């Protein structure tokens, strides 16, 4: 299965994930540190899932995306993806703060006032119950015909209330709907085992830890993968591409994240540029 996302090694990891991409439901948890190119791996799995079936749908949840960072946003995004009629949701009430009041004076000077509101503040969150029921019913209808995936990126950075709500919805409502048709793919961007919600997350069917440096055992495969990309994108002869791939991987210290970031720049410098 080919996608537009770079695939440098990860053969063992992709072989483990592929049954879930194609036909198996459950919970897949993937962890990796800063060098692991975790977000690229997430993009690759998402692209493969979409390509695996014409009716497959997915929603990617990210703490860095305003459209999916809170329960209200997630419910709305799922409803949109499932083709449900959109509801008008009342906006949260505005927050008003009185810094100073009931002051009688001709001149007033206010300085050095600091107001701090935590990032998890959610004033007057509307009742999500009816929306949750509509989305759950729509999800059930969809799963009778095709598959659906919830892809949670950087789940270790989710707002606590969002994480609690999401795992509760999965455990109490959604997981029982899908069987083989429903997939929860959870990616933790901290060091393996570092997610603060591990004890509260749904039980994993499969756990993977992505390497932060290509192990010696897979460097030959990584070299072949890079050489294949170079030959395809620049029309270099295979021998030249193989030699350049070895030099390139040594230059990035065999770090997957650096490889996936710098390889498109290497290609552009050689006159390619589709990546």
In short:
With 275 residues, the chain is an alpha/beta fold.
Numbering strands along the chain, what is their spatial order in the largest sheet? 2-3-4-1-5
Shape: globular
Give the rounded overall mean pLDDT.
Answer: 82
Helix content: 40-55%
CATH architecture of the largest domain: 3-Layer(aba) Sandwich
The share of residues in extended strands comes to 5-15%
Main sheet characteristics: 5 strands, parallel
Tally of DSSP helical segments: 8
CATH topology of the largest domain: Rossmann fold
Architecture blueprint of SSEs:
Elements (H helix, E strand, L loop, with lengths): L10 H12 L3 E6 L6 H15 L4 E5 L9 H11 L47 H15 L4 E5 L7 H19 L3 E7 L17 E4 L9 H16 L3 H14 L4 H14 L6
Parallel strand pairs: 1-4, 1-5, 2-3, 3-4
Helix pairs in contact: 1-2, 3-4, 4-5, 6-7
Can you give a write-up of this model?
With 275 residues, this protein is of the alpha/beta class. It has two domains: 11-86 and 128-209, 3-Layer(aba) Sandwich (Rossmann fold); 216-269. Helix content is 42%, strand content 10%. The protein is built from eight helices and five strands, in the order αβαβααβαββααα. It has helices at residues 11-22, 38-52, 71-81, 129-143, 160-178, 219-234, 238-251, 256-269; strands spanning 26-31, 57-61, 148-152, 182-188, 206-209. Strands 2-3-4-1-5 form a five-stranded parallel β-sheet, sandwiched between helices. α3 (71-81) runs parallel beside α4 (129-143), α4 (129-143) packs parallel to α5 (160-178) and α6 packs across α7. The radius of gyration is 23 Å and the shape is globular. It starts with 10 loop residues before the first helix and ends in a 6-residue tail after the last helix.
């Amino acid at each position: 299965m080919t996608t537009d996302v770079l695939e440098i090694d990860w053969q063992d990891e992709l072989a483990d994930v592929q049954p879930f991409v194609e036909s198996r439901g459950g919970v897949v948890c993937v962890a990796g540190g800063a060098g692991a190119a975790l977000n690229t791996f997430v993009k690759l799995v998402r692209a493969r899932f979409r390509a695996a079936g014409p009716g497959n749908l997915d929603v990617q949840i990210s703490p860095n995306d305003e459209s999916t960072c809170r329960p209200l946003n997630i419910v709305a995004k799922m409803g949109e993806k499932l083709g449900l009629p959109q509801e008008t949701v009342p906006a949260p009430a505005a927050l008003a703060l009185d810094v100073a009041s009931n002051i009688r004076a001709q001149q007033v000077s206010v300085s050095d006032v600091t107001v701090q509101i935590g990032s998890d503040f959610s004033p007057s969150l509307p009742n999500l119950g009816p929306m949750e029921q509509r989305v759950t019913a729509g999800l059930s209808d969809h799963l009778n015909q095709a598959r659906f995936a919830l892809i949670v990126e950087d789940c270790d950075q989710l707002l606590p209330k969002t994480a609690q709500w999401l795992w509760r919805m999965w455990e109490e409502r959604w997981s029982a709907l899908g069987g083989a048709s429903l997939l929860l793919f959870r990616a933790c961007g901290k060091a393996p085992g570092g997610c603060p919600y591990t004890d509260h997350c749904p039980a994993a069917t499969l756990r993977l830890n992505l390497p932060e440096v290509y192990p010696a055992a897979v460097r030959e495969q990584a070299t072949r993968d890079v050489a294949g990309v170079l030959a395809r994108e620049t029309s270099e002869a295979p021998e030249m591409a193989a030699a350049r791939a070895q030099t390139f991987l040594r230059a990035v210290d065999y770090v997957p994240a650096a490889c996936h970031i710098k390889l498109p720049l290497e290609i552009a410098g050689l006159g390619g540029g589709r990546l």
